[in-house]
Backbone:
């Protein structure tokens, strides 16, 4: 079965870790202005927030998809 979801098989932790490794917390906080990236950021606290906050998770997922497109160029 083939999923049309571009995030299929990618966990939230995986995509967040990849973004942090590439951009760092400071740059990520400037790109996606949410407090969990700007005030004492950590993967664990950010995951907790993103799992409970659909609008923030959607922003991070959209940003990740744009990042992936840029990586393929």
Residues:
């Amino acid at each position: 079965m083939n999923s049309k979801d571009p995030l299929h098989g990618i966990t939230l932790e995986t995509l967040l870790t990849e973004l942090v490794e590439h951009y760092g917390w400071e740059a990520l906080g400037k790109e996606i202005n949410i407090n969990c990236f700007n005030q004492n950021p950590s993967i664990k606290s950010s995951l907790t927030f993103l799992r409970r906050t659909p609008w923030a998770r959607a922003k991070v997922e959209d940003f990740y998809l744009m990042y992936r497109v840029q990586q393929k160029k």
Summary: The helical segments are 12-31, 35-38, 43-52, 54-72. The first helix runs from residue 12 to 31. The chain has four helices and no strands.
